[in-house]
Amino acid sequence: MFTLGIESTCDETAASVVHAGKKILSNVTASQADLHARYGGVFPEMAARRHADAMVPVIEEALAQSGVAAEDIDLIAVAKGPGLIGPLLLGLHAAKSLSLAWKKPLVGVNHVEAHLFAAMMECDPILPALGVVISGGHTFLVKIDALGKYTMIGKTVDDAIGEAFDKVAVMLGLSYPGGPVLEELARQGNPLKYRFHPGKVKGRPWDFSFSGLKTNVLYTIKGQDSDKNAPCRVEEEEKPHIAAAFQETALGDIVAKAWKAATEFECQAIYLGGGVSQNGRLRAMFQEKNSHIPVIFPPKGLSVDNAAMIAGLGYHVFLRQGADGLDLEPQTRIPL
Ligand code: KG4
Ligand code: ZN
User: Fold this and answer.
1) In Å, what is the CA distance from 102 to each residue of 13, 69, 75, 195?
2) What does the pLDDT look like over 163-208, one tens digit per residue?
3) Ligand 1 proximity of 11 Cβ (cutoff 6 Å)
4) Cis peptide before 82, with omega less than 30 degrees from 0?
5) What local confidence, expressed as pLDDT, does residue 187 receive?
6) At residue 37, does pLDDT exceed 90?
7) What is the best residue among 11, 36, 135, 174 to mutate for testing ligand 1's pocket, by most ligand atoms within 8 Å of CB?
8) Is this model's pTM higher than 0.85 or not?
């Protein structure tokens, strides 16, 4: 069974062809990072317009690279949310049009569940497992008993981890998206030179909070009680140390909670998902734990937003629940 996946929840227009939910035949992503860089974050209306331009060429490219003819596609899977309303509408319209024109079933996929699925899609999952989704929009720990059977353990009460990386990167004068550039800068820094503290959420030991840490970094860079538009007060050579200390604190918090949760909830493996899972320091921190519990990261191209994870998960959702109707609505917020 060949599934065409379509992803357009935020600032990536993506299409992919996947066989039997597992074998990726093509995975095409057109990033809009250049467009949003000048705003230091995603500009929703511009994102929707760029999706409109990119959608058809990206789908055509995914079909061409896969070698599968349009008439041999059996299922169309589309990210139905969570995400930005304009971008979501573009993806859903594309998917519905193709479903109607090709007379093929349509299935809506939860984008966040797809991030969770990405690291397990090409192999047989080890379950029960702990899922750790760390992206620009989401940060949570979940117990996975089976595909579609999740128990939320903890989540962020304010910023997502990727959002915190992006915002701290702006404070340090770095370009968008900030995560990879901040990681690069942090490599030249001493993480112990500055002392930041991970956020605590009263009475909720598994939850995350990054806004206090972000303010801590802001005051270090721009002075106590300053706002984000204040001028930078630290020397250039201090920035790598601040970046390193922020990264160590934020990622250290995630690794510590993930580890504790995996043990306490008797998980056989840890699966990571989302753009921040590409971070090299995060991977090293998990390795330093040196434990018997396997820690599995998404393969290249499956960490950040992509359509292969949508097509892959779409296949399983379709087998379990059947097709959605053409009245499928975008959902800007959906729980897992
Ligand atoms: O999963 P993703 O593509 O989008 C969402 O669904 O949100 O993740 C994008 C996020 C951005 O915030 C970006 O800065 C962050 O992932 N990111 C990183 C790294 N690479 C991407 N954060 C830290 N270190 C990285 N190497
Ligand atoms: Zn995402």
Assistant:
1) 21, 11, 10, 58
2) 999 999 999 999 988 999 999 999 999 999 999 999 999 999 999 9
3) no
4) yes
5) 98
6) no
7) 135
8) yes
Distance 232 CA to ligand 2 centre (A): 31
Q: Could you tell which of 165, 182, 214 is best to mutate to test the pocket of ligand 1, judged by most ligand atoms within 8 Å of the CB?
A: 165
pLDDT of residue 272 exceeding 90? yes
SS3 call for 81: strand
Q: CA 336 to CA 330: how far, in whole Å?
A: 15
For the chain, the first-to-last Cα distance in angstroms comes to 26
User: Is 305 near ligand 1, meaning CB less than 6 Å away?
Assistant: yes
What lies within 8 Å, CB to CB, of 45 at 6+ separation is: 86
Separation of CA 73 and ligand 1 centre (Å): 31
Instruction: Summarize pLDDT for 76-122 with one digit per residue, the tens.
Output: 999 999 999 999 999 999 999 999 999 999 999 999 999 999 999 99
| Residue 191 to residue 242: CA distance in whole angstroms | 7
Q: Ligand 2 centroid to 83 CA: how many Å? A: 8
Does 8 contact ligand 1 (Cβ within 6 A)? Answer: no
Strands 139-146 vs 129-134: parallel, antiparallel or unpaired:
antiparallel
Average pLDDT of 272-300?
95
The closest alpha carbon to 321, from 309, 313, 332, 329, belongs to 313
| β-strand partners of 257 | none
> How high is the mean pLDDT of the chain?
96
